[in-house]
């Protein structure tokens, strides 16, 4: 059969088909090839101006091909063709303004950055995507053989082969697709490897008359590509094709060979309605067997009429297409059952919808309806109607009285008055409204009622058919259901104001789950436990002083009574509750436990027992042996002094134990009997001997921080599953280890270099991170005590929910971004906002599909007023938050942007996003401001909430926590818990332990920063004489004073226990390593003599920021020549013992200091030779595992992560870690100078003081000789920060 000469693209269905059906399209076009994409400079395409030319050149120009079409691609997904009137730079500017930038100059600067391409990118010509093109169509010319291999009549021939849709298409003419086409349906078929031939596959159709084609591919790569794609098609049970997110403007012509197609997904494309173009939506009627069609998010603007000509359609999704009208032709779809029109601009529906006699579900949410369409009265088959998110306060719903056929109504985010006009409804959703009262008694047929997140005070409902009641997060004081709901199985009334459990609840015989937590209930009725159907009872966070004493046999499997006022549990509770598997009685006042049995035999099946934060003593331990099946035991923060070895030996099935916060001196050696143990947590005790947990085969996590360990000997072969070993907070610990390769996170205190700083520390910190039940650490903490010239501090917590990548990127990068932003503006809040927005593009491809919450706290002096008090600036997105303790009371500094915020809900509606029933944007995240998730732009943006407060002596500490922490603890409880613990590390550990014992099952992180702000926390010593800071440079520090010392050694800030190093000597500043543990110093400042040249005499008082005016007191000012190195923070190389004259090192940034505070400078200052810099860099590269001396700390095995822990070498990569090898100029000045700096650049003097300093240097006497090894130089200095 030959091809006709016309260029009609539409295939004519002909021919013979017995498993394979040969079809002859008139002239099928070749497979589409995408033009080469060219990214425009600076993220935008730029047009080249036309030049005038003579007539001959003008004629030649007319014959030249037209310029390529411009395309825009957002967040790495689909690419859209720009219209003729669209301007690329304007689109880019609008996008960046939507992110949160406020100034035009900043938007223009950001648009020039090449990294903005991960957010928005422009192409000249349609960009090619390998993944999308493979899903659309595979094609090539290969050796093909039909039929059985052993028949000699079948020969190998070179043919064109195409895989498109659900069919394999083979041409009958060599190198052509214009002849007879053989079509092999693949649904239900199989693909097999042919071992006799290289790179050969056998494709077979299904059915008794199946056909087989053998295809030999030219390369192994093509072989794998075809095998992967065909296997997906052949494994399907239904004829389905997914072409979503492929940047399609028209349908591929070969797709129409799939005549048996029943399900087609075309969402998130740019399909156009143009009858003149082949493959447009006008040809959809060719799919005569199509049942399900998804055209959502195609920006159609108009409803495609061709869809109405598919009579077999049963499901049609037209959501988010900017539709303003639905045509009358939709009435021709008589078989349609589900019709989704959510997220459009609809105000009316055509009357012809009444012809859809089978329509049962109609989605009209987040449109602009002001009234119910009258046609709904005639759609008698409609049972579910979604009207959520329409015009609030204007929608008149009384018309539902005339629609008794509608059983399920979704009215979320919609109404603010009563709904007593829906007597026939069986499922009613009223979530996220402002209802203050609800009388649902008239709903006699009601089965499921959702009224969460309202302002309900009273709730009345009919219980005739009620099966599920959801009324959490209201203000309920009265709850009546009449008659008794005999079918009620689930009831959630948590987070209300109920004072007692209604009597009718005890009579609901089919009730299985009851959640009454977070109320004001004082007593539980005894009859409640007699319900034979009750399986789960959640009664935590109430005011109960006791539980019912006499309990009969109860079927409760899960009992949660945490956060009450219980003094004891009923004596018969554990004996009568034969089915009890889970018991949480944490945060009570328990002093003893009830027995599980009165004899040696026990029927207990208890598996999880949480008793944290009680008053339990050693007498309770013996009672635990009555639960031989116990797997999880939490007894942290009680009064335990010992855990008998004989009792531990009987808990053989134990897998997780937490004994933190007690007074234990040892962990029993019989823990070796617990062969399934994987987690041992016993921090904040008095343990002196390391337990023999390393012999357990399943051990994964060991936390023995904040104890009194003095020596630990690890075995030569560590357990294969060990992932975390935390030994911080043991100051006398001497570790003997052979290998740490198998440990994911190893934490140990860094050896102290001695206390050289006498000034009191204004802040100190401690932090911790804990993985969730899936053993994935999806949180990260950032702690930099000496940020930006040792005068500032930076802390952060990052939560990736269920991903690890985003928190790690935030931890490694945000400090660098903030440092750069501080050079661009003095406004601290603006710096924070821009830091978060810039971080959005820094996430790169990881932020396109993933996201994370973040909170960042920055402490510094106001650059406008360097002598003023310290200012704490907090910025957050998502549910990571900061709380400041002021005068013993919590002061929240963060805000969580969710759907309950009216301004955020209005913004979401304006962008036509869909809020699902669980309150999430498009079902992804409940936070409307969060980092990452760029595919949800502009509904989800990274602009943070920023708040600044001036620190005062009344401020004790502040807490940064992840979502898991604040979901488990209130701000009041967190502040009270930290106030009772003097050590910052132990306080952070306590917060995470409490959260896990209270029910947190996700990763959790907490940072506690203790404050000691003196009364005179402002500088008053000749600050007025200092020149103002230069633009673009960090504000001059006024808080460094150096004691007198020999003239040959510059008084650089040295290490102290009060200021542990937070900058790893091996990593770049982007990795900001910090020492785990408390960094506070309680030692008083040592006395130091005052020199003659001091601006303040011996008897003259100085401010707290400059104690004891020294003759060499100086004001630090950054040099423009900063460079990457492996120097330690105190100016020492890894092998040197003396600081380098004139050079200060802060992590990976080496800065030059000039003595301008007192108007004096030293002559004869020693400059670091270039060889020393090379040695420092070489040492860091050649000895990654060697110990490094840093400010108050030295490195440990491997590279330190940004949280102070040691990670394997492969985890220590960073985008700017290679700056020492390739020192490029960056806007922030990082790694700007070569590895060997010019000695002339090591002294920077302000122009106005240059002449004066020269004169002073000439008059300065020569420096005395260096002290010998027997006479160490006095390297001490006073650095309050």
From TrEMBL:
Catalytic reactions of this protein: O-phospho-L-threonyl-[protein] + H2O = L-threonyl-[protein] + phosphate; O-phospho-L-seryl-[protein] + H2O = L-seryl-[protein] + phosphate
What does the record give under GO molecular function? metal ion binding; protein serine/threonine phosphatase activity
InterPro entries, per this entry? Leu-rich_rpt (IPR001611), Leu-rich_rpt_typical-subtyp (IPR003591), LRR_dom_sf (IPR032675), LRR_domain-containing (IPR050216), PH_domain (IPR001849), PPM-type-like_dom_sf (IPR036457), PPM-type_phosphatase-like_dom (IPR001932), RA_PHLPP-like (IPR055071)
Q: Which Pfam family is one of those matched by this entry?
A: PP2C
Domain PH residue range list: 135-235
State its Enzyme Commission number(s). 3.1.3.16
Coiled-coil regions in this chain? none
Cellular component terms (Gene Ontology): cytoplasm; membrane; nucleus
Task: Enumerate composition-biased segments (Pro residues).
Answer: 1261-1270
Q: Where is the PPM-type phosphatase domain?
A: 764-1011
Q: Needs which cofactor?
A: Mn(2+)
**Topology in membrane:** Peripheral membrane protein
- In which residue ranges is the amino acid composition biased (Low complexity)? 16-26, 1048-1075
Question: What protein does this entry describe?
Answer: protein-serine/threonine phosphatase
């Amino acid at each position: 059969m030959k091809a006709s000469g016309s260029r009609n693209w539409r295939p004519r269905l002909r021919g013979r088909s017995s498993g394979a059906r040969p079809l002859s399209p008139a002239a099928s076009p070749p497979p589409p090839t995408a033009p080469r994409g060219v990214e425009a400079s600076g993220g935008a395409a730029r047009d080249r101006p036309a030049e005038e030319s003579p007539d001959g050149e003008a004629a030649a120009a007319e014959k030249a091909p037209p310029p390529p079409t411009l395309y825009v691609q957002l967040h790495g997904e689909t690419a859209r063709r720009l219209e003729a009137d669209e301007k690329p730079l304007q689109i880019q500017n609008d996008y960046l303004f939507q992110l949160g930038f406020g100034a035009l100059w900043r938007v223009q600067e950001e648009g020039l950055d090449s990294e903005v391409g991960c957010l928005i990118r422009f192409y000249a010509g349609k960009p090619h995507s390998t993944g999308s093109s493979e899903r659309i169509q595979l094609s090539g010319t290969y050796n093909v053989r039909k039929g059985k291999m052993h028949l000699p009549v079948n020969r190998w021939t070179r043919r064109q082969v195409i895989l498109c849709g659900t069919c394999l298409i083979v041409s009958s003419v060599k190198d052509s697709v214009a002849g007879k086409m053989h079509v092999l349906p693949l649904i239900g078929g199989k693909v097999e490897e042919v071992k006799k031939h290289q790179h050969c596959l056998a494709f077979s159709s299904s059915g008794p008359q199946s056909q087989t084609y053998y295809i030999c591919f030219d390369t192994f790569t093509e072989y794998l590509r075809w095998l992967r794609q065909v296997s997906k098609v052949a494994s399907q049970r239904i004829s389905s094709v997914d072409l979503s997110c492929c940047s399609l403007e028209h349908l591929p012509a070969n797709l129409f060979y799939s005549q048996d197609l029943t399900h087609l997904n075309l969402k998130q494309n740019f399909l156009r309605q143009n009858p003149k173009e082949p493959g447009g939506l006008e040809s959809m009627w060719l799919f005569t067997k199509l049942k399900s069609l998804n055209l959502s998010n195609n920006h159609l603007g108009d409803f495609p009429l061709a869809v109405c000509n598919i009579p077999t359609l049963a499901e049609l999704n037209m959501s988010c297409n900017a539709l303003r009208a639905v045509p009358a032709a939709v009435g021709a779809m008589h078989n349609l059952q589900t019709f989704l029109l959510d997220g459009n601009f609809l105000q009316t529906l055509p009357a012809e919808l009444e012809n859809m006699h089978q329509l049962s579900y109609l989605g009209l949410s987040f449109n602009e309806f002001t009234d119910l369409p009258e046609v709904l009265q005639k759609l008698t088959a409609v049972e579910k109607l979604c009207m959520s998110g329409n015009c609030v306060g204007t929608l008149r719903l009384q018309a539902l009285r005339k629609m008794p056929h509608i059983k399920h109504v979704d009215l979320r985010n919609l109404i603010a008055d009563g709904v007593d006009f829906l007597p026939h409804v069986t499922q009613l959703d009223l979530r996220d409204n402002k209802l203050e009262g609800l009388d649902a008694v008239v709903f006699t047929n009601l089965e499921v009622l959702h009224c969460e997140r309202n302002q309900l005070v009273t709730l009345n409902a009919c219980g005739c058919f009620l099966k599920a009641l959801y009324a959490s997060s209201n203000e309920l004081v009265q709850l009546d259901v009449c008659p008794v709901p005999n079918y009620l199985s689930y009831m959630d009334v948590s987070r209300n104001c109920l004072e007692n459990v209604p009597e009718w609840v005890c009579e609901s015989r089919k009730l299985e789950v009851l959640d009454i937590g977070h109320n004001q209930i004082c007593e539980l009725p005894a009859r409640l436990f007699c319900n034979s159907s009750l399986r789960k009872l959640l009664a935590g966070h109430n005011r109960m002083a006791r539980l019912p004493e006499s309990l009969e046999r109860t079927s409760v499997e899960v009992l949660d009574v945490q956060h009450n006022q219980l003094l004891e549990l009923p004596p018969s509770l554990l004996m009568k509750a034969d089915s009890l598997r889970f018991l949480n009685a944490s945060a009570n006042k328990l002093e003893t436990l009830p027995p599980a049995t009165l004899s040696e035999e026990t029927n207990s099946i208890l598996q999880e027992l949480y008793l944290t934060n009680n008053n339990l003593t050693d007498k309770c331990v013996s009672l635990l042996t009555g639960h031989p099946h116990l797997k999880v035991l939490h007894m942290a923060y009680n009064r335990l002094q010992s855990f008998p070895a004989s009792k531990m030996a009987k808990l053989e099935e134990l897998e997780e134990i937490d004994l933190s916060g007690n007074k234990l001196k040892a962990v029993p050696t019989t823990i070796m009997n617990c062969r399934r143990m994987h987690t041992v947590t016993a921090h904040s005790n008095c343990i002196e001997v390391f337990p023999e947990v390393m012999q357990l085969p399943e051990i994964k996590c060991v936390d023995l921080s904040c104890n009194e360990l003095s020596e630990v000997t690890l075995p030569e072969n560590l357990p294969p599953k060990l992932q975390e070993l935390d030994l911080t907070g043991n100051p006398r610990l001497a570790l003997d280890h052979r290998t740490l390769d198998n440990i994911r996170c190893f934490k140990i205190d860094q050896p102290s270099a001695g206390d050289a700083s006498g000034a009191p520390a204004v802040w100190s910190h401690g932090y911790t991170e804990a993985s969730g039940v899936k053993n994935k650490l999806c949180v990260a903490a950032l702690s930099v005590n000496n940020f930006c010239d040792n005068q500032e501090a930076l802390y952060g917590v990052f939560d990736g929910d269920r991903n690890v990548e985003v928190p790690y990127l935030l931890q490694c990068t945000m400090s660098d971004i903030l440092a750069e932003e501080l050079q661009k503006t003095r406004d601290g809040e603006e710096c924070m906002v821009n830091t978060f927005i810039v971080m959005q593009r820094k996430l790169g491809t990881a932020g396109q599909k993933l996201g994370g919450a973040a909170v960042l706290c920055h402490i510094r002096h106001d650059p406008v007023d360097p002598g003023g008090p310290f200012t704490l600036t907090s910025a957050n997105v998502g549910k990571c938050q900061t709380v400041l303790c002021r005068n013993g009371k919590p002061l929240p500094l963060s805000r969580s942007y969710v759907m309950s915020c009216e301004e955020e809900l209005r913004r979401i509606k304006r962008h036509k996003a869909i809020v699902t029933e669980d309150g999430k944007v498009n079902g992804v995240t409940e936070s409307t401001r969060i980092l990452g998730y760029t595919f949800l732009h502009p509904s989800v943006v990274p602009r943070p909430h920023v708040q600044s407060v001036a620190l005062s002596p009344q401020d004790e500490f502040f807490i940064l926590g992840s979502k898991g922490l604040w979901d488990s603890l209130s701000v009041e409880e967190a502040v009270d818990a930290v106030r009772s613990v003097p050590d910052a590390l132990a306080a952070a550990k306590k917060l995470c332990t409490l959260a896990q014992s209270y029910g947190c099952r996700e990763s959790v992180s907490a940072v506690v920063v203790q404050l000691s702000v003196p009364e005179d926390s402002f500088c008053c010593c000749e600050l007025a004489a200092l020149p103002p800071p230069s633009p673009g440079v960090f504000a001059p520090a006024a808080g460094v004073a150096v004691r007198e010392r020999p003239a040959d050694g510059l008084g650089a800030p040295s290490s102290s226990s009060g200021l542990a190093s937070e900058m790893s000597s091996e990593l770049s500043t982007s990795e900001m390593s910090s020492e785990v543990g408390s960094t506070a110093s309680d030692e008083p400042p040592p006395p130091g003599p005052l020199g003659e040249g001091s601006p303040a005499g011996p008897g003259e008082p100085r401010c707290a920021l400059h104690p004891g005016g020294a003759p060499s007191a100086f004001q630090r000012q950054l040099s423009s020549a900063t460079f990457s190195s492996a120097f330690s923070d105190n100016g020492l190389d890894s092998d040197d013992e003396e600081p380098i004259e004139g050079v200060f090192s802060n992590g990976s940034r080496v800065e030059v200091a000039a003595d301008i505070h007192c108007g004096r400078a030293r002559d004869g200052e020693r400059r670091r030779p270039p060889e020393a810099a090379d040695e420092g860099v070489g040492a860091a590269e050649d000895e990654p595992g060697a110990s490094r001396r840093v400010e108050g700390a030295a490195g440990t095995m491997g590279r330190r992560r940004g949280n102070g822990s040691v990670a394997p070498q492969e985890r220590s990569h960073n985008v700017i870690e290679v700056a020492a090898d390739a020192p490029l100029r960056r806007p922030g000045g990082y790694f700007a100078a070569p590895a060997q700096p010019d000695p002339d650049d090591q002294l920077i003097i302000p122009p106005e003081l240059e002449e004066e300093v020269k004169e002073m240097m000439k008059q300065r006497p020569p420096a005395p000789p260096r002290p010998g090894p027997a006479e160490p130089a006095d390297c001490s200095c006073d650095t309050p920060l």
